[in-house]
Amino acid sequence: MNPSVVCVDIGGTSTKAGVVDSSGQLHFTQSIPTEPDVESYFEALSELIEQTLGAAQADSHTIGGIGVAVAGFLSPQRDRLVYNPNIAWLEQFPLLERLWSRFEEPVELETDSNSACMAEYLFGTGRQSQRFLCVTAGTGLGVGMAVEGQPLRFAYGCLGDIGHIIVEPKGPACYCGGRGCAEILVSAPALAERFARQSGLASEVSLRDVIEAANQGNTIALSILKEAGEHLGIAISSMANTLFPDHIAVAGGLSAAGDSVLKVAEQVFRDSASILARSGVSFSRAALGPSATLIGAVWPFWKS
Question: Which of 11, 127, 133, 156 has a CB 3.0–4.6 Å from the CB of 73, allowing a cystine?
């Protein structure tokens, strides 16, 4: 029986924490903003973990460690973030060492893309898969792949920057320095900004607002989500042509749009990928949805 593990998901917009028990159930979730001052952020993160540990211990959980999923690239030792333009201020900060010193608990860092993938592999739609591709569309576009139960690590602890695959060569400039990347075309901030601009809204909106508007029949929101599904499908087609998964799941905030995005993405995938790459491949919404990354932060403690 695996012990419970404190899980943390450091994203570009917010940082979430909770506790995952041995059955994969998530408890005591709370969040803080991911704010761009490294020392004050570390203090807020530490307080968040302390509160989570306190709640778990009060509920009689035995804690086996702290698993931290980080958006971006990790060092070869997986002890710190080395690259993420969304949270560049956290790059090279000795996160593993500082957390271990603060809590004196085992600490594991993992990329957010691998965390989401392994959560879905262990507890979601990837359980019977030998070559499982998990695409997480949220603040960014993270992609992880599990082959026979282990994450692929091509570069920087993960698949590399595969979320920045080019899908529209003359498309918008991306903060990665490229142009027409999948991420800049399907990420939550980009879709929200597009909706606000096309709707003439002065106030800031979120991806959730876009999805809610689409559910109410808003034609601008529906058009934006359809286009996001098309771009996502093109990106997944290219990934499948290279990696040959047997199952593909879409996780993250964009997956909450449901058929407005996922049916479109699957149809584009079926129409665009090579015959061999799409043969026998199943395609689904990730069962764990937006919680996948947070739950998957604990997987290094449970690997065989």
Answer: 156
Each residue's pLDDT tens digit, 100-133? 999 989 999 999 999 999 999 999 999 989 999 9
Minimal CA–CA distance to 96: which of 105, 88, 87? 105
The structure's pTM equals: 0.89
Judged against a pLDDT cut of 70, whether residue 303 lies above it is answered with no
4-115+293-301 to CATH, choices 2.40.50.140, 1.10.8.100, 3.30.360.10, 3.30.420.40: 3.30.420.40
In the chain, domain spans: 4-115+293-301, 128-286
The CATH label, of 3.40.50.700, 2.60.40.10, 3.30.420.40, 3.40.50.720, for the domain at 128-286 is 3.30.420.40
